[in-house]
Automatic annotation (TrEMBL), chain A:
MF (Gene Ontology): peptide transmembrane transporter activity
Native organism: Stagnihabitans tardus
Domain of life per record: Bacteria
Family: Belongs to the bacterial solute-binding protein 5 family.
Domain Solute-binding protein family: 74-451
Protein's recorded name: Solute-binding protein family 5 domain-containing protein
GO BP annotations listed: peptide transport
CDD domains hit by this protein: PBP2_OppA
Localization annotation: Periplasm
Automatic annotation (TrEMBL), chain B:
Family matches, as SUPFAM superfamilies: MetI-like
Protein's UniProt name: ABC transporter permease subunit
TM spans (from-to): 9-30, 99-122, 134-161, 173-191, 227-249, 277-299
Subcellular location: Cell membrane
One GO BP: transmembrane transport
Family: Belongs to the binding-protein-dependent transport system permease family.
One Pfam family linked to the record: BPD_transp_1
Membrane topology, from the record: Multi-pass membrane protein
Length: 537, 307
């Protein structure tokens, strides 16, 4: 036993000696959560869904949004639209260079989109759907030559974009148009963006270190960057592993992360431990119920309206989804351009009206109503946290108020999408998060079929007019009329707008760390703005 | 003995081939492919082009033989999720942290577990036994992510002695290694205790005591050697299990190891990486069991004679 005791003592002494270390944290470094641990290419124009790190802050887009969602000129110094509305001309600001000293040219932007259009870009739909670039569809389908694409660079500082229809909101759309360094790509192909040694940056930051196993990166100021939104911190350490609240919060508490996203269970604890340090962010998303309008029993408008009237959004978001969502009473989330608060007054919880509508549809107290199944998709992030509890709440509400049995089915993303577009079911819970800041983004979901085979001529006509009208006030009014068509037809039922919660270090200061006019703090949701407008005390 | 080893090596090759076929078929039987899982899947035309580039448009038997031909030449292909490198390069960089973590976890946890088990057996039904048994039971029943969280809260958040997570500097290794070590320590404590108790009650121990041998000699030379057989059975497979990475420990402590690739390769249908990982584990387990069998023979002359 003496031997055992000696060994145990030695182990204890060894452990104590080792525990003498303490973590060193440089004050000028911001430690932040990243997006995905499994991304491959650090090139937004190669892949959006499988991108590594934050190419949004190492490359400079033509324009970008600030925390109040005002459009700012970034690489593009100015832009103008032709009289017929079909041509946009963007003028690049002179003097922009890549981090290897090569001048940044308009042709780098043209190359980026031409390459994207022809090599399986997983975000290709965006440039047809949102950008409406001339010939985008035929080129991406391989039916037309890439040279026929409606983009060109008449000189090093000019980009011309031709669209199929007038796109008054194109300057906002091009906030996701990043350049690709053609001079590097020509030597290395797509692999240029997979290696820290071959990456070149055009934006405020450049990559210094890249730990591939979890895509954590150390980024430093790009010394050649001369554009707006200069970085205010010397170094960023962005680690996607910190994105999981279970990992991020302990790291935050130990001083190893400057902010951490929170799950619902953590919020009460953090409110006590770090009072006043929780920030909320509306992610500009909506979770809504959608139908196959031609499939019974949802081909009856009164059935759809009955469901809409049976949803108590205020109770749902005050109980089951407390701190995770706000009531969704319109397609557009609060604060989003075109959001119409007046229209939300129509989304009223009225059980008596719901019962009456269902009776009018031929199903008094749910008698004779077939068992239905609502399909939702397996997903992580904020949607993963809210969807199932929300559906279980709705399931109970519909049963209690309407006498309807609604079963719930979860599907993998692809199967859910196939089911939605292929009309394999007639009831869905659908999430949608904005891709660009303009009402056309959300209204497009139901335009001319959209993702739901939604064909309502009056709606399509209004959206088409709104999409191409040059005047913002006219557009906003037309979109409001379009939403009224959706409401009257009960084409969809908005249920909630998700929000995210994060705890932010008091050491993090600057415009980027504070809330916007609506009280929301976007954090890395607007990565380029946030990381260039945040400082550390 | 040489014939025995050769026979076992041949069975390793057979197992390797059978596992490769089963895994290959299972991988391709799972719905979806490498370009189906995105939020907004690519168009069918583009998908077809990408599949052709990776040779995934070929018939399954051809894909299998192409892959295995590459394996024969130590070419495990290119991981779809990290196309800038080969599978071997990826394993080379991601395995180092996992091996460090798992290896040190076992090398620290196993001896401590043996000591704990010995102490419990030698002081049976005393507070030492109860404490050791409670510790072993807790170590085996508390999920490792809970242990990890407790370690972070105590040593990083409350005491501030150690970093909560990360990798690189040796001080960042300590907490994940402790979290890792709890499992082998608890496992070994339980195995050692029961094996020791079994041997200590055998007649030959009484004979040795009657001969006047010291307790230390009886314990370390005779009892421990006889109790070692079940420990050998557990040791190498456990070493492999931990050396291939623990997704929970690595995730909790942000260790850039291999653990996450086991999940992500399945999620993203990264066939080349998925196959390579499974084949790597298969080979390691086959060799581990072979070495275990050889160790039995070294420890127990009766087994040597039977062969």
């Amino acid at each position: 036993m003496t031997f055992l005791r000696s060994l145990a003592a030695a182990a204890l002494i060894g452990t104590s000696a080792l525990t003498g270390f303490s973590p060193a944290v440089a004050q000028e470094t911001v430690y932040a959560a990243g997006d995905t641990t499994t991304g491959t290419y650090m090139d937004y124009m190669k892949t959006v869904y499988a991108r590594a790190g934050n190419p949004e802050i190492t490359q400079i887009p033509l324009t970008s949004f600030d925390k109040d969602f005002q459009l700012n000129a970034l690489a593009a110094e100015s832009w103008s639209q032709s009289e017929d509305g079909l041509t946009w001309t963007f003028k690049l600001r002179p003097g922009l260079v890549w981090s290897d000293g090569t001048p940044l040219k308009a042709s780098d932007y043209i190359f980026a989109l031409q390459h994207a259009a022809t090599t399986g870009y997983d975000f290709a739909w965006y440039w047809g759907y949102a950008g409406g670039i001339k010939n985008w569809g035929p080129v991406t389908e391989g039916k037309a030559d890439v040279a026929t694409l409606g983009i060109s660079a008449p000189d090093d500082l000019t980009i011309v974009v031709n669209t199929e229809t007038p796109k008054p909101y194109l300057p906002g759309v091009v906030s996701l148009w990043y350049p690709v360094p053609k001079h590097v790509f020509d030597k290395l192909g797509d692999d240029w963006s997979t290696n820290v040694d071959t990456l070149v940056a055009s934006g405020p930051f450049m990559v210094k270190e890249w730990e591939k196993s979890n895509n954590s990166m150390v980024l430093v100021k790009n010394p050649t960057y001369t554009g707006p939104w200069q970085p205010t911190v010397d170094e960023l350490v962005i680690d996607p592993s910190l994105g999981a609240p279970e990992v991020g919060l302990p790291a935050f508490m130990a001083g190893e992360a400057d902010f951490a996203y929170l799950n619902a269970g953590q919020i009460p604890f953090v409110e006590k431990q770090f009072p006043g340090q929780i920030t909320k962010n509306a992610v500009f998303a909506v979770s809504y119920i959608s139908f196959d309008l031609e499939s019974a029993p949802f081909d009856n408008v009164n059935v759809r309206k009955a469901l809409a009237a049976a949803i108590n959004r205020d109770e749902l978001t005050a109980t089951v989804l407390k701190d995770l969502a706000i009531p969704g009473k319109s397609l557009l989330p609060p604060g989003y351009p075109g959001y119409n608060e007046a229209i939300t007054s129509q989304a009223v919880f009225d059980p008596a009206k719901a019962k009456a509508l269902l009776a009018e549809a031929g199903y008094p107290d749910g008698k004779g109503f077939p068992e239905v199944e609502i399909w939702y998709r397996d997903q992580g992030g904020y949607n993963g946290a809210i969807t199932l509890p929300m559906l279980q709440y709705l399931q109970a509400q519909f049963k209690d108020i309407l006498g309807i049995t609604m079963n719930i089915k979860i599907l993998p993303m692809k199967d859910w999408m196939d089911g939605l577009t292929g009309r394999k079911n007639n009831l869905f819970l659908a999430p949608y998060e904005y891709d660009y800041i303009d009402p056309s983004n959300f209204y497009g979901i139901f335009y001319n079929g959209g993702r739901h085979s939604h064909h309502v001529p009056a709606y399509d006509e209004l959206v088409a007019k709104a999409d191409s009208s040059p005047n913002w006030e006219d557009r906003a009014a037309l979109y409001q009329q379009a939403e009224q068509v959706l409401i009257d037809n009960a084409s969809m039922i908005p249920v909630v707008h998700p929000i995210t919660n994060a705890v932010v270090s008091k050491d993090l200061v600057g415009e980027g760390a504070g809330p916007n006019k609506l009280g929301f703090t976007p954090l890395r949701q607007l990565a380029l703005y946030f990381y260039t407008h945040v400082d550390k005390q | 003995m040489i014939l025995y080893i050769l026979r076992r090596l041949l069975s390793v090759v057979f197992t390797f081939i059978v596992v490769s076929i089963i895994i290959f078929l299972m991988m391709h039987a799972v719905p979806g492919g490498p370009f189906d899982g995105n939020d907004m899947p690519v168009s069918p035309e583009v998908r077809a082009k990408l599949m052709a580039q990776l040779g995934l448009d070929k018939p399954l038997p051809e894909q299998y033989f192409r892959y295995m031909w590459g394996v024969l030449h130590l070419d495990f292909g290119v991981p779809f999720q990290s196309p800038g490198e080969t599978v071997l390069q990826l394993l080379g960089r991601a395995w180092v942290p996992s091996l460090t973590l798992g290896g040190l976890g076992v090398l620290i946890g196993a001896p401590l577990g043996i000591l704990l088990g010995m102490a419990a057996a030698l002081r049976r039904n005393t507070w030492i036994d109860y404490l050791a048994s409670a510790f072993a039971t807790l170590g085996l029943t508390i999920p490792v992510f809970v242990t990890s969280m407790l370690l972070i809260l105590i040593f990083a958040v409350w005491l501030g002695w150690l970093p909560a997570s990360g990798w690189g500097k040796p001080e960042k290794w300590i907490l994940p290694i402790i979290a890792y070590a709890t499992i082998p320590m608890a496992t070994y404590a339980r195995y050692t205790r029961s094996a020791m108790l079994d041997v200590l009650t055998r007649p030959f121990v009484t004979v040795l005591r009657a001969k006047g041998l010291s307790e230390r000699r009886i314990l370390f030379v005779h009892v421990l050697r006889n109790a070692a057989l079940p420990l050998v059975t557990v040791f190498l497979p456990m070493f492999i299990g931990t050396a291939t990475g623990s997704i929970f420990v690595e995730a909790m402590f942000r260790v850039p190891g291999l653990g996450a690739y086991f999940v992500s390769s399945i999620e993203t249908r990264d066939y080349a990486l998925e196959m390579s990982l499974i084949l790597m584990i298969t080979t390691m387990f086959c060799i581990a069991y072979l070495l275990s069998d050889l160790a039995y023979a070294l420890l127990d002359p009766r087994i040597r004679r039977r062969r």
